[in-house]
UniProtKB/TrEMBL annotation:
Name used for this protein in its record: Pentapeptide repeat-containing protein
Pfam families: Pentapeptide (PF00805)
Alphabetical list of SUPFAM superfamilies matching this protein: Pentapeptide repeat-like
Domain of life, source organism: Eukaryota
Annotated InterPro entries: 5peptide_repeat, Thylakoid_lumenal_pentapeptide
Organism name: Micromonas commoda (strain RCC299 / NOUM17 / CCMP2709)
PANTHER family: THYLAKOID LUMENAL PROTEIN TL20.3, CHLOROPLASTIC
Amino acid sequence: MAADVMDVNEPSIMNLKLKPRTQEVILETKAEHINEDFSHEDLVGAIYTEGDLRGSDFSGSDLRAAIFSRAVMPGVNLEGADMSNSFLDYVVLRGSNMRGVIAREANFVRSDLGDCDVTDADFTEAVIDRYQAIGLCDSASGTNPFTGVDTRDSLGCERLKRYEGFNKENSKVAVSKGSGTWGGAAN
């Protein structure tokens, strides 16, 4: 059985009301778009590398397979956006509104997701650094209205635990002659 593959030529399952796309290829590097309105845009496959997008509005936009690499995006509004299969590596999204987004199979490697509102979001099979996912779980709630997926389930909140250290009872790590092979085999 073949795996489901996203077809960006098909409309988003979110029935987004989009403005007409004005250019076929969107490729911007180190662009400055502070507090700009990108709401309800067709940005499928768009590429924004090292851009400054602070406070911009991407609500209701189609961001499937879009790339935001090393972008500065704190406080952006992504509410109701389809971010499926998007790639956001080393992106600062701190304090952003991600209510109701679909971020299935999105990649958030090394991104800052602190203080984001993820109510009703779907992160099924998204790649999120463990400590960022744990932080999102602190306030995650709701169910995505389009996929029917519980936000906490999509983040894996029930299986994520904070690191508590190995030395809970103030005991010492015992090292004996045969406990390791540093410098050669133990006798």
